[in-house]
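Hi, can you check this record?
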Amino acid sequence: MGNEIRWGVVGPGRIAQSVMGDFVHVEGARPVAVASRSADRAQAFAQQHGLERAHGSYAEIVADPDVDVLYLATPHPQHHAVALAAIEAGKALLVEKAFTATTAGAREVVDAARANGVFVMEAMWTRFQPAVVRMRELIADGAIGEVRSVQADLGVDRAYDPADRLFALELGGGALLDLGVYVVSFAQMLLGAPDRVTAAGSTFPTGADAEAALLLTYDDGRSATLTTSLRYPTPGQARVFGTGGWIDVLPRFHHPATIVLHRTGADPEEITLPPDGTGYSHELAEVTRCLQAGRTESDVMPLADTLAVQDVLEQAAYQLGVHHREDPHAL
């Protein structure tokens, strides 16, 4: 690929609307096309954002020869089928979290990407926020010693509406896939894949999970305590405990501007590093740089981490009696 990476958007919903404004901060990236199951909706999105082409189906943008990478922002169960078609067509992908609705679906997408040498990355913007990047640098430098425990919460109070995507099981609704993915990914980033997952929570009448408390434990004694909810609000803070101190990631931790370093025996050190734009620019820049360099995976958000997170989410969902399915008819 050349220096300019041409982007297409699949699914012009709320998240895609927010992401579009951050392309101005990404050198070498140019959004050129959008696809929706509604041609009118695609056309309206294209006009709003100055895109060259609007496609009335996902299959059309997958076949568009003038698109290098697709930003996949459809409901979770549609990711699997669209991603497989895109990979077969040689299209790189930035796939919104949660990556897929199921672990089996995620493995199939990852296997296809690796077999075909196609770049794919989960859109976990948290890992690319400047404050989180700095936190990881401090931890790598031994600022708080060995990380032994992580706490994180992310909850909102949403009025129950069975027709809304958040509450519809067939659309991947529920707290775990929408918000829990953040707390699980944060813990996995710092501790790796757990040896055991224990979950408690409740479900909505639709069968989607309403809230979940997760305990991730490791054979060497490390742990993570995580909370997610669509039923009640939480501060959205994270805390990383080490043998030599701790780091607070101030709300909301999944796109923070400020962290506070507490070294044992020293005064707290507040570090503020706001994101460029809304904060999506950093993951867009990562994908763009990787494609320009001919890479097929990101070191910051590798596919192995995505699979580990998906597995934890599925284990927790099963313990709550929630069983997600992929949509085989997404195209």
